[in-house]
Amino acid sequence: MTSFVSAHAELLITVVKIALLLFIVLTVNAYLTWFERKVVAHMQSRWGPHRVGPHGLLQPLADGLKFLFKEDPTPSGVDKFVYFLAPLLALALALTSIAVIPFGPDPIRAWGHDIYLGIADLNIGVLALFAITALGVYGVALAGWSSNSKYPLLGGLRSSAQMISYELALTLSVVGVLLIAGSFNLKEIIASQASPRYGILGWHIFPQLIGFICFFIAAVAETNRVPFDLPEAESELVAGFHTEYASFKFAMFFIAEYTSMITVSCLCSILFFGGWLSPFPATWTWTHYLPAALLLLSGAWVIWDGVRYETIFGKLILPVIGAALCGMGALLLLFPAINDFIQAPFWLLSKIFVFLFIYVWMRGTLPRLRYDQLMSFGWKILLPVSIANVIFTSFAILKWGTR
Amino acid sequence: MTPQLVVFFVLATLAVLGSASLIFQKHPIHSALSLIVVMVALAGLYLLMGAEFVAAVQIIVYGGAIMVLFVFVIMLLNAGVEEHTNISKLAGFPGLLLVVALTGFVAATIARTTSTVQTASQTGMISSTKDLSSMLFRDFVYPFELTSFLILVAIMGALVLAQREK
């Protein structure tokens, strides 16, 4: 047994990392739905979920149980194989894309092995992500086709047309960053944005602002989110491609959509916003205490909120959560090694959180586009602008170099 | 067997089964799906040979863009199950002959090659995406650009053919 473990240590570490990342991503997915419902509710002067657990914190659990135990009817006349394949494909591809994302530069040293935060460190990281995204359209298109129903078919057709149109702009808008960084590897792209003296000014967002705007619009369209959620426009198509799906197969589409939101947020922060780099110059050492300060403050706030919460359950559980947050903050203050290690993941996760908030914010703000507006915008504005950005960036690099 | 060999056989079996299924499936969508399996299996084989850029492009261009168009068109036309017409008896015989000839030719070529198959980096020609791009855009820039002109002409031809009568 021990010889097997030592002989296949790398493999075992990877398997454990995959399981851990899956657990984290699925949990984050669940609480992303809670976060979205809460934020959109407050934007519309409502309370959002607040019955299940304090502040509705157990709502994702209740939703998950509901998805598991609901009846799962298969409509008559569906193409059985493709009907079952489509949600699996959508979910599997969405989860695979997370594997390419690196979450920190420093490895954890344990049992004589360097364990990096991230599963696959590919030389072709960005390309691999685009390859997975390119296959992602099949989940939606095949779901629409196999359901043997008019509305899903229309939704599937719309989504394939939309994804083909916006994939070009998505790929081209990144070329500027790739030219400056000179690599497809996500770690090297982050490293190329490091600027010890000026911090935030080294990020690709400044030379590539147009590239970022194109990328973000195209990425939102690729993930079928508001204002580009035409494949599931409920006022026209019932629920679009997943109309005929119920129970856990519907949940799989749901999880796939939220996972690709996370992937896009990761990509935005890594490609344009310096990934795990701190926005402050390296000489400002006091910024190292920001994660601890944030944890202590939010912990204190949760305790304060918990003490005056209406229900007994909330009075009991919220101070415990707050104390746990405070404890983590204190841990960071007491152990400088852990504090130093946590800096890079802290900044990356904060940036990812900001982009997830922007996603939700857009959903609460923007109306849906009309189909012809969507197509003409994609082909007549987004694509030419991203091509122009590529050409301009190439000439700029030729004239002034990459810095 | 080395792990590489195991992966090779898995991918090769997938590719062969996918191409067989592409021909024998009755429904166009199922055939298109089989073709996607073949494309992805081929990308895996390229990856096994160390040609990671080619593998990624294989999936992006063939697996993604081109096959999505196939599926899109099949969905748009709502094509049904294929109907079998009277199969020409004459076509069967030369077809079989050609299959035997092609298989023999490929087998003979493989048998005659003395050198073992090398991965992309072992050949020493192209080891990274950088080498590949400098080869495409420096050493072979004229053939490369000519090919893109050819594709441009094809696109314009499609536009002219699809244009509505005035």
Describe the secondary structure blueprint for this structure.
The complex is a heterodimer of chains A (403) and B (166).
Chain A: H1 2-7, H2 9-43, H3 59-69, H4 80-98, E1 108-110, E2 113-115, H5 125-146, H6 150-181, H7 186-191, H8 209-222, H9 234-237, H10 247-272, H11 290-307, H12 312-334, H13 336-365, H14 371-400
Chain B: H1 3-24, H2 28-48, H3 52-77, H4 89-112, H5 129-139, H6 141-162
Oligomer: heterodimer
What is the rounded Rg of chain B?
20 Å
Which stretches of chain B are low in confidence, meaning pLDDT under 50 for 5 or more residues running? none
Which shape of chain B, going by the Cα principal axes? globular
Estimate percent helicity of chain A. 55-70%
Structural class of chain A: mainly alpha
Helix share, percent of chain B:
over 70%
What is the rounded distance between the termini of chain B? 66 Å
Q: How much strand content do the residues of chain B show?
A: under 5%
Q: Any idea how many domains of chain B?
A: 2
**H/E series of chain B:** HHHHHH
**Poorly predicted ranges of chain A:** none
Query: In this structure, how is the largest beta sheet of chain B organized?
Result: none
Mean pLDDT of chain A: 84
